[in-house]
């Protein structure tokens, strides 16, 4: 939906994001890697908003491709990758992956 859509038509933007999250959840996605920084922000920042507003719960986390590559090369999730800035907590995923 793009960055400007979130501000110009928030309800439609959140509904489209919810539809995509629903599809990802049905497919069993646990980690979504985003190439686009705006997409990463849309999904990470607004997943919890959608969960509250629509009474749903998603069991997935979101990373930007640069974070994923850095993490894969052994970078610290917090000091280098900046995972503490995410709205969707990554700790459960990192534990499951044996990273922390």
Give a written overview of the molecule.
The chain has helices spanning 2-8, 10-26, 37-54, 65-72, 91-96, and strands at residues 31-34, 61-64. The chain has 100 residues and is mainly alpha-helical. It has a single domain (2-96), classed as 3-Layer(aba) Sandwich (Rossmann fold), CATH 3.40.50. β1 (31-34), α3 (37-54) and β2 form a beta-alpha-beta unit. α1 packs across α2 (10-26) and α2 crosses α3. The longest helix has 18 residues, at 37-54. It starts with a helix and ends with a helix. The mean pLDDT is 90.
Topology readout:
Blueprint: H1 2-8, H2 10-26, E1 31-34, H3 37-54, E2 61-64, H4 65-72, H5 91-96
Helix pairs in contact: 1-2, 2-3
Outline the biggest β-sheet. 2 strands, parallel
Give a count of the beta strands, DSSP E runs of length 2 or more. 2
The average pLDDT score comes to: 90
Count every helix, treating DSSP H or I runs of 4 or more residues as helices.
Answer: 5
Overall 3D form: globular
Radius of gyration, rounded? 14 Å
């Amino acid at each position: 939906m793009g960055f400007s859509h979130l501000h110009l038509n928030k309800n439609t933007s959140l509904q489209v994001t919810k539809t995509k999250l629903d599809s990802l959840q049905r497919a069993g996605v646990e980690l979504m890697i985003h190439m686009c920084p705006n997409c990463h922000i849309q999904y990470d920042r607004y997943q919890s908003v959608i969960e509250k507003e629509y009474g749903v719960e998603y069991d997935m986390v979101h990373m930007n491709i640069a974070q994923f590559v850095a993490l894969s090369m052994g970078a610290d999730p917090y000091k280098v990758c900046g995972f503490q800035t995410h709205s969707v907590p990554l700790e459960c995923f990192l534990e499951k992956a044996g990273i922390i």
